[in-house]
Structures are given as structure tokens and as C-alpha cells.
Amino acid sequence: MAEVRVCLTDTFAALDAWFDQPADLRRYRPAAGGWTADEILEHVGLTNHFLLILVDKATRKALLNAQTQDLAAALAAYEFQTGKLADIGRHKSFAWIRPEHMEPTGTRPLAEVRAQLQQQLAHCRQTLAAMPNGEGALYRTTMSVNGLGKIDVYEYLYFLAQHGQRHLTQLSRNAAEFAHNPA
């Protein structure tokens, strides 16, 4: 849980720093196409929104399971699947066609996107706080991205942070290209 919390905090802090970058950098579109920094940030917020719906459902079920399952036994056999989730944090490490509802429109005000990401970090922290004893390990649900299969609530939160990391790499690439081609 501590590793997930740190990863979430670091990822969201790095994303938040992008809102303070110059507007011309944030609006720069890579020469080969792709998203601007503003669009990437909007996409992360959209994706988090839908992931957190799944996290909330899984959290409720995990907490219910904690009333009837042996938490100590589950934790004794618990293995966090860090390696399985590592590819999520690497930009272009696998092919994935995102659902249309996770595509940025470029029309949301930047302040709204920033506030959404800040609220999402708070939401993630509240989720972790609601399961302080490891209850999140008691419910697993299928994640189709990159064939991950069944992951638990903590792994879903880590997935969310890794998705942000994936796009931080994309943001860094945009910045590097912009530095060489400021248009």
C-alpha cells in the first residue's frame, strides 16, 4: 500500500507540474502527429475517471469480502504483481486502441482538468485509507489492457499511476521535440 501511495503521489505531482509549463509548450503538437500536452493531461483525467469507477466497485466488494473471508490467510499468500503491471508505465510498450470516451476533445478548460486530477489523487488516497489492513487484496477483477487478467484493488490503483507514468514519458518526448523545433 505504501508503494502504491508513493507511486500515485509522485505521478500526480509530475502531471500537475505540467500545468505550470508555458502555453506554447503545452499546445505543441509533435511533428509526427499525436497529442499536445494539454490533450495528454485531459486523456489521463478521462481515463482515471473511468478507472476509478471500477476501483470504487471493487473496493466495495473487497470490503464486503473482508466480513466473510480470512484476511490474514489472503495476505499471507498475497503477491503484488509489479512486474505484470510494469509495461503499463512504458509509453508504446504494447498496442492498445483506447475507447472513444477516453479520447481528449481539447475543449475542456485547463483549470478544470487540473482540478479533476487533484480530486482524483484525493480519491485514490481515500480509497487506500478505506482499506488500511490489506482488504483490497480480497477482490480481483479482470483488466483487459495488455492481457493483465485479474488484478486486485491495489493493483488497479497502481495501474492508474502507471498509466500516468506512461503519459509522462510522452510529455517528456513532446518537450524534447519542442525544444528542438519551437515553431
TrEMBL record:
Lineage: superkingdom: Bacteria
InterPro entries the record matches: DinB-like, DinB/YfiT-like
Ranges where the DinB-like domain occurs: 20-171
Coiled-coil positions: none
UniProt xrefs under SUPFAM superfamilies: DinB/YfiT-like putative metalloenzymes
Protein name as annotated: DinB superfamily protein
Organism: Hymenobacter actinosclerus
Lineage, broadest ranks: Bacteria, Pseudomonadati, Bacteroidota, Cytophagia, Cytophagales
